[in-house]
Amino acid sequence: MSPDVAAPTPKLLVVDDEPSMRDMLRIVLRRDGYDVTVASNGREALAAMEHGFFDLLLTDIRLPDIDGVQVLREAKVRHRDTVALMMTAYASTETAVEAMRLGAADYFIKPFNMDELRLKVRSHLEARRLRVENVLLKRVLETSHSFENIVGRSPAMLEIFSMVETIAATPSTVLVTGESGTGKDLIARAIHAHSLRKDHPFVALNCGAVPETLLESELFGHMRGAFTGADANKKGLIEAAERGTVFLDEIGEMNATMQVKLLRVLQERRFRRLGGTDEVHADIRVIAATNQDLTKAVAEGRFREDLFYRINVIQIHLPPLRDRREDIPLIAARFLDRFAERLGKRVRGISQEAMALIEAYAWPGNVRELENAIERAVALERTETVLPESLPPHVRAGGDRSPVQVAKLPEGAFDLEAHVDQIYRDHITEALAKAGGVQVRAAELLGMTFRSFRYYAKKFNLR
Prior knowledge:
Number of domains: 4
CATH superfamily of the largest domain: P-loop containing nucleotide triphosphate hydrolases
Strand order of the largest sheet: 2-1-3-4-5
Shape: elongated
Number of strands: 16
Number of helices: 19
Radius of gyration: 30 Å
CATH architecture of the largest domain: 3-Layer(aba) Sandwich
Distance between the termini: 62 Å
Structural class: alpha/beta
Largest sheet: 5 strands, parallel
CATH class of the largest domain: Alpha Beta
CATH topology of the largest domain: Rossmann fold
Helix content: 40-55%
Strand content: 5-15%
């Protein structure tokens, strides 16, 4: 995506009961390039705010129904980042102080200089943009390490990276598929980070982790009194993600009722809060993810066919780690650096034999399981290099098998650690015999570093 892509047009709400003033402000501010909505009284203003987000509110204080201070108060309740500018023909210190206390950024007394107002609007919007950018930058710096999980050099991952870059700038809905632990959430974040919506929120919801009774409230919000315990209006995640991205993880777990309501959001870009009657506009991009076969779920009647086609506009499939083994050393090295720093350990590398075991293992839990294994290894390792015995037992013994595919246990008690040690002892003894007792040559025959070979030779008292 080009860095010169223009930022979204700021949205302004102008509230004034004088038609001439209202029309003049609309014409002037639109000429300056803003998206301007006008309201003739407080109730119209509140209705406009119900249906969308505004970057800036410009309101007269004296209105025929409810005053501008109340409009300001409601605007801040709905969207605390909205910039508020107040206008009045009747100067009142008391009113000005109250408006500023509630978060008004400036105060104009009619008649005012239009050029001065335009300048103030521009400067306040620029200051707001910088504040938002600083917050977003801080979030990126705090979470940038999470993208290490999706590094890769395999052809499959390089193709995915290219696809993310291509589709990020489009508004299309994306479906990310793949086994658990492959990093579907990180792909969703990468799409958002490269999109035109990157300066706005990324909101994630795991549909399988929220009880069905609460899922609607979490997604759409609710009105006070909608159900027992709803003692205040609550904004849902779709509203919280205004002009940003909503990531619906494990969408295959969503019940039939919620599927219908989500379908309406995707079709009409509108929804109602739980217990509410007013429709709210949804300016969002949706990225969904699942580890299920949704085609099969549709055939079995567990997932709506029309919703499936709505979310499956662009599909990205993340391959399991066992199908991109060339990425394993790179990912393991990144995790090693992260956990060595986090745990304060002087672990600088992974031994050749430990890496061979890591690459041979099937990793049924994918990147998440590899991450846990490396954290364990760094925590247990007493040298500067991860040795095989610091890896989880099933990784050391598993080879190309997953832990649920181990050989049958013999009758009676079985000591897995002793069994693995015996395998090491036998192979090292044979290598020493073939190498004529030369340890360096024996280590080469086994594909081990001399340091690791010497460690095991000493452990098993072999010469």
